[in-house]
Design brief:
38% of the residues lie in helices and 25% in strands. It is built from 7 helices and 13 strands. The radius of gyration is 36 Å and the shape is elongated.
Length: 270
């Protein structure tokens, strides 16, 4: 009796570890199907990957020529129509001086279309650098520097900060009939600006934002009416500012609020 029970236990244990039977066809058939799809794709891609016969380049072409663009991407054009790396072609084009953006697309059956946008210089940086409308330095040593552009200068790593302040101040000055000619940030962090009419504005390196607001809210209106008489405005005071006149005299303004009241009264706003 004991031996029969032992044999039954062994049979039960063996049954637990029985490997399930899987038909080979259930494995082979999907593999063959996937392989067929891959082979079809590769064959189709190989048939479609014909040489690039032509490129079509669209853009303003004021600073860059279509020939320069074609030369920059000549190595990439050796690849086929399908295998060409459009992202790599785009990067090569954008790396050219004066190119801001580029879009590359395939056009059946064997043509590439390239659309480029050139940089728009908004200001001169230092002596010969150029900043775009986003304040980015895109040319460090331009052969031709447009004389009509404003001049910005400062430490190399602060070009974006200088451009940002220029744009913010200029946007506030235009409505009152003023414009900026120059913005400078020295290595110690002191700011000064020169208006288009030649008036210098000294902001210093402390509380620059507060002083800038005071200049825009009060001093800009004073300059608008008496620009021909003013040489500079010194905003480097804790409680006001000083106007320097062309005749050499100086007028400290210690109560800006009083200046506002007098200005409003003269306009009849009160």
């Amino acid at each position: 009796m004991t031996r029969k029970q032992a044999r039954r236990r062994k049979q039960k244990k063996a049954a637990r570890f029985t490997t399930p039977k899987i038909r080979v066809a259930h494995i082979v058939t999907p593999v063959i199907a996937v392989a067929a799809v891959i082979a079809t794709y590769l064959a189709s891609a190989s048939m479609l990957d014909r040489p690039i016969r032509s490129i079509e380049i669209h853009g303003p072409f004021q600073r860059v020529t279509a020939l320069q663009i074609e030369e920059a991407i000549s190595d990439e054009l050796e690849d086929g129509f399908v295998s060409a790396d459009l992202g790599g072609i785009q990067r090569h084009i954008v790396e050219l001086p004066w190119i801001d953006q580029a879009m590359v697309a395939r056009r059946w059956p064997s043509r590439l279309r390239i659309d480029v946008t050139e940089q728009v210089p908004a200001a001169i940086w230092g002596k010969r650098g150029l900043l775009n409308v986003r304040g980015e330095l895109f040319v460090r040593n331009a052969r031709h520097v447009p004389a009509e552009l404003p001049r910005l200068s400062g430490p190399e790593n602060r070009s974006a900060d200088v451009a940002k302040r220029y744009l913010e101040v200029r946007d506030r000055l235009i409505p009152v009939g003023l414009d900026l000619r120059r913005v400078h940030l020295d290595p110690r962090g002191a700011w000064d600006m020169t208006l288009q009419n030649g008036v210098e504005v000294r902001l210093g390196r402390r509380e620059v934002d507060t002083r800038t607001e005071l200049f825009l809210d009060i001093v800009a209106d004073i300059i608008t009416g008496r620009a021909a008489e003013i040489e500079y405005v010194d905003m480097r005071y804790s409680n006001g500012f000083t106007i320097g006149w062309n005749n050499g005299s100086r007028t400290p303004v210690e109560d800006p609020q009083k200046e506002i009241d007098e200005m409003l009264a003269s306009r009849g706003d009160r």
